[in-house]
Design brief:
Elements (H helix, E strand, L loop, with lengths): L1 H17 L4 H17 L1 H12 L4 H19 L6 E6 L4 E5 L4 E6 L4 H14 L3 E6 L4 H17 L7 E3 L5 H9 L3 E6 L13 E2 L25 H18 L1
Parallel strand pairs: 3-4, 3-6, 4-5, 6-7
Antiparallel strand pairs: 1-2
Helix pairs in contact: 1-7, 2-4, 2-5, 2-6, 3-4, 3-6, 4-5, 5-6
Length: 246
């Protein structure tokens, strides 16, 4: 898909620029994203609730603030650029090396807060990130990415460090995850089912891998992330095959 190719190419170029920045410059960008997330927490929470019908606005505000300020406070003092430690006695120097471009899958349950914290941790580690949004949360995710990109630009970074697919389809998501210049996949929630097919998957703390079954079905009247239904059917076929072998 042409859009995916263009987004990854732009992200790759932006990441090269980021790789030339100091720790202080990178931290300034991350801080700007956190501040922007807090400033827009309620507006983005309202949009997420309107788009998906999930959750309570006040609760989503808390999540947006936590994903912005809370995550920032936890990572702000971490050394992530260049030499991060040195042991003179052993003559060992530890150098941080970014992976490059990250693919980030965003669910419908917590779309705005997920985009905020994934942008922060990606850039903190010297990487760019391209989001694949859940279709039902497209509007609020795109608005969140707009807020993030503006913050990045105002802090002296390249706004293409954070971007998002505007036409979310199974093909677009698959092309993003399989792109040769995508070095890592960050998947969250039900969307994580998609990336179980890919050997380059990564998962965060408390994010146990699970196969899509009944517990991952969308709420009545809601649309699953592109490809989830197909993957669920394949999973059931595998279960039937295992049962038959027993």
């Amino acid at each position: 898909m042409q859009e995916v190719r263009e987004l990854v190419e732009a992200a790759k170029a932006a990441q090269r620029e980021l790789a030339q920045m100091s720790q202080a410059q990178v931290d300034r960008i991350v801080r700007a994203i956190a501040d922007a997330g807090v400033r827009n927490a309620r507006r983005l929470a309202q949009m997420a609730n309107e788009d998906t019908g999930f959750g309570i606005v006040d609760d989503k505000v808390i999540k947006n603030v936590f994903a912005s300020r809370g995550v920032y406070e936890h990572i702000k003092d971490m050394k992530t650029i260049g030499e991060i430690s040195c042991d003179p006695a052993r003559g060992v120097h530890t150098i941080a090396v970014p992976v490059g471009v990250i693919a980030g899958l965003i669910p419908s349950t917590n779309p705005t807060s997920t985009a905020l914290y994934k942008a922060e941790i990606a850039i903190k580690a010297g990487n760019a990130i391209v989001f694949s949004p859940h279709p039902t949360a497209l509007r609020c995710i795109l608005e969140t990415v707009k807020v993030i990109r503006q913050a990045v630009s105002e802090a002296g970074g390249n706004e293409d460090l954070v971007s998002c697919i505007t036409i979310p389809t199974m093909e677009a998501t698959d092309n993003l995850m399989r792109h040769r210049d995508v070095a890592m996949i960050l998947a969250t929630g039900g969307s994580a089912g998609l990336f179980l097919r890919h050997p380059r998957h990564r998962r965060g703390p408390r994010q146990r891998p699970r196969l899509p079954g009944k517990e991952l079905r969308p709420a009545p009247g809601r649309q699953a992330h592109p490809g989830l239904q197909d993957l669920r059917q394949r999973h059931h076929l595998r279960l039937r095959a295992v049962h038959h072998l027993r």
